[in-house]
Amino acid sequence: MPDKELRVFMSPSSLTRIRQRYGKKGAEIIEKNVFDKMRRADVIDPKYALIDTSVLESNISYPTDVKLIFQALSKMSNFADRHNLELWWQHDEIKVRWREFSLNKQRNAWDYLFEFSHVLKYALPGFEIHIKKLNVSEKIKNNAEHLLAVLSLLDSQNDLKIKGVKHIENRIVSLDEIDARPIKKGKKHPNCEFGTTFQATFNRQGFMITVENFIGKPSDKIIYPDALELFKSRMNQYPEISVTDGGYRSNKNLNISKKKADTVFMGRSDDVPEKIREECHKARSATEGFIAVAKHWRGMKCSLYKGFSGDRIWSLLCQAAHNLKKFLQLYYKEKLSERSLIKLGLLE
Question: What is the CA radius of gyration of the chain?
Fold first, then answer.
């Protein structure tokens, strides 16, 4: 939250240690307590469910095939240094070639990809042999075996790339963020983002009711029914009006929604009666605004925590911060009822 006073409240390192100790389960408890307190005080209106998905970017540099191979070789080199192993390939020559690749703007990337992938394919069997021979703790050996498995997947990915395969399922884009995927959302810029997907549900006030996280880009049509069920579990009732874009539209979802919500708007004007058509269009436009606020002002544009579990923790903490900030906005503008303030202990 952009509040200068928070900078002297607690050091960032202390917050990091607290977050690591709490983990995903602790983050879920924190977010749930914040949300339930406001819901029980009737601060959060359950009438609308505005549902949309977006990308939670991972904190990685733009990936290229050659860069990933160089990072893979560097990780094996670091492993060899830590365990006093003699390198079984010419890593100094690879460093020189990497600098040439980085500085040469007129380069032919395919030539470098062939060269680097050949070195990786040669180095992997030696890495596996050294892991088996090492006399180290079980934890270190498990980490090394995990790294070997990831690098083997990268090697297979390179083979497919060289063969001309354009769409590689579960493509690795980072060796440190294994769960990150290339995701296209139909935007002109950037046309591809790297991370995980989150689906958020807002009410008309702008409170974030639910947030779910997914690896890759699942179809909106598939994940929509679960969003309605999660909304019910959070608010103890289904919404009166469900609003999405056309990406969620299917006969199955329309039928499911009509059994649970009084009004369903899925991107078409003829979905709803004319008297509330404009209201639904405005609600759909507001969804984009709420997503933008969550991403650019509440931290959900890029996760600074590693792994899919880290993305989940990041999303939950951002959700709690988003809802607290929304509450403060309504409180300062005196848009909360007396009854809600009394329930929260803010008014006698």
Answer: 25
Q: What is the pLDDT of residues 71-92, one digit of tens each?
A: 999 999 999 999 999 999 999 9
Q: What are phi and psi of 297, to 5 degrees?
A: -115, -20
Q: How far apart are CA 336 and CA 214, in angstroms?
A: 34
- Is residue 3 very low, low, confident or very high in pLDDT (cuts 50, 70, 90)? low
Answer whether the bond into residue 46 is a cis peptide, omega within 30°. Answer: no
Q: Where are the beta strands (DSSP E) in the chain?
A: 48-58, 181-183, 193-202, 208-214, 241-244, 263-266, 302-303
What are 236-247's pLDDT values in tens digits?
Answer: 999 999 999 999
C-alpha distance from residue 84 to each of 70, 92, 134 (Å): 21, 17, 11
Q: Which of 3.30.70.270, 3.30.420.10, 3.20.20.105, 3.40.50.300 would CATH assign to domain 4-60+179-343?
A: 3.30.420.10
Ordered by start, the domain boundaries in the chain are 4-60+179-343, 65-162
Q: Decide: 153 and 68 in contact? Cβ < 8 Å.
A: no
56 and 197 Cβ atoms separated by less than 8 Å: yes
- pLDDT of the residue at 191: 86
Comparing 182 with 3, the larger pLDDT belongs to 182
